[in-house]
Amino acid sequence: MVQTKKLKLYLDTSIPSAYYNNSQPARQKITQRWFENEATNYELYTSNIAFEEIQQLKNEQKKTNIENLIFNYNIHLLTHNDKSQQLAEEYLDKGAIPKSEPFDAYHVAIAVLNGMDAIASWNFSHLVSINPIRKIHEINKKHKFNIIEIGSLQIFGGEKYGTI
After folding, report:
1. 42-47 and 149-151 beta bridge pairing
2. Residues in a beta bridge with 46
3. Residues whose CB is less than 8 angstroms from the CB of residue 123 and which lie 6 or more positions away in sequence, other chains included
4. Do residues 162 and 37 make contact, with C-beta atoms less than 8 angstroms apart?
C-alpha cells in the first residue's frame, strides 16, 4: 500500500489560541474538533514567534494550556533567523502585511523558508484575505519560493465542525 505524504501545515498563534478562546464559541468548537479529529492528517509546525506571542498573554492558565497543546500534539518548532527577518521585512515594506503586524510577517516568512505547504490562521484581517495572499505570492514568486496556501482551519478539514 502506498503511503501518502502528509501536508506540512504551519499553525500561526491564532490556531492554538482559539482552542481556549471561549469568547468566540464557533471558532473554539471548530478548533477543538479539528485538533481531536484532523490534526493527525498533517505534519504540524509552529515557531518560536508563536511562543513569543503566547508569552504576552496575561492569563497564566491560558498561556500554560496553549503551550501544553503545542507539546501534546507534537507540533514541530521552527525558528526565526536572519533570512526570515529579511523576508518578513519585505512583506511589511511591500504592503503584503501591515507594518503594525510584524509577527504575522514573521509567521509567513518562517513557513515559506522552511518549505511548508500551507499556513492555517484565524487571522482574516492580515493573512486569510485575498489581498495579503496575492502580495505574499507575488513576493515569493520573485524569489522563486514555492507558493504557500493560506487559509483557516475550515479549508483543512474543519468545515465539518461548523462555520464562522
Report:
1. unpaired
2. 77
3. 12, 14, 104
4. no
- Give the tens place of pLDDT for each residue, 72-125: 999 999 999 999 999 999 999 999 999 999 999 999 999 999 999 999 999 999
Total length of the chain: 164
In the block, residue with C-alpha cell 487559509: 151
C-alpha cell at 68: 501544553
Cα(83)–Cα(110) distance, integer angstroms? 9
The answer to whether 142 and 8 have CB atoms below 8 angstroms apart is no
- CATH topology for the 7-161 domain: Rossmann fold (3.40.50)
- Interatomic CA distance for residues 151 and 146, integer angstroms: 16
The amino acid that residue 142 corresponds to is K
pTM of the model: 0.95
